[in-house]
Amino acid sequence: MGIGGATARRLASDGARVLIADIEEQAAKTNAQTIQAAGGVAEVIVADVSSLDGVRSAIERAVERWDRLDIVVNNAYSGAYRGSAVELSEEHWDRGFDVGLKAMYRAAKYAVPHLRQSGGGAIVNLSSVHGMLVSPGALVYETVKSAVIGLTRQLAAEYGPDNIRVNAICPGHIVTERIQPQWQAHPEGLRFFEEHYPLRRCGKPEDIANAIAFLCSEDASFITGQALVVDGGMTLQLQENLAVHVGHYTQEHPETWLPY
Question: Into how many domains does the chain fold?
Fold first, then answer.
């Protein structure tokens, strides 16, 4: 679903043979069927990427099925656990890092040998604008997404000589299937969010999928180690100017609803 689902569809439409590794089997199968109905090639493996076996089995399945590996997209994340260092449980800290960061290390560990055999390839890691800017009460998410950028740069330097390019994507607010019911119930809240973006809209999963497809393509053959911000311009603004604009908007629209 969401960014991962859109990315699978986009890469398949570009001719990739896609293995969807997901803990939610039915959602993954539905997406694979959509790809197949459009003439693409997609299969599903149920995998919990917080475990070593989950990551390794996904990599091995792709290679067994198609005899090579060219692209790895690390998109999984487990819950935006809220809380400060004082409030947050160690369980949530560990779970956030296992799925959001350690899975990427494991993916590189098992994918790089196969990418080398293919003559090179591309790894794309999903970070966030939260990897560059932070907000209170989101210790795990902000820390994980910051670490993803550091991991991406290290892997890019390490495996560039093998013609393996490693980049990160930093999305802004993306309206996925999971969050659509909230915005449908509160369209004034979505409109308020859109006012934070120079393009006056939030992102769609396809916006991120398009950026990922570019970084995986030959058009990006000289790009590695980068954290590409895809956020409709949200993070380029001077904060006090944005605050003035948003303040004016809320005065003119007192019905504005906030999700937090």
Answer: 1
Length reported for the chain: 260
pLDDT digits 0-9 by tens, 3-21: 999 999 999 999 999 999 9
Q: Is 71 helix (H, G, I), strand (E, B) or coil?
A: strand
* DSSP one-letter string for 91-156: HHHHHHHIIIIIHHHHHHHHHHHHHHHTT-EEEEEE--GGGTS--TTBHHHHHHHHHHHHHHHHHH
191 vs 45: CA distance, rounded Å: 38
The reply to whether the predicted model has a pTM over 0.90 is yes
Q: 22: part of which helix (H) or strand (E)?
A: strand 17-22
Residue 26 backbone dihedrals phi, psi, to 5 degrees? -65, -40
CATH of the domain at 94: 3.40.50.720
**Would you say 48 and 54 are in contact if contact means Cβ atoms under 8 Å apart?**
yes
DSSP 8-state assignment for residue 7: H
Which residues are designated catalytic?
141
By residue range, what is the domain housing residue 11?
Answer: 2-252
257 part of a folded domain? no
User: Does 36 reside within a domain?
Assistant: yes
Residue 260 within a domain? no
CA–CA gap between residue 214 and residue 78 (Å, rounded) = 26
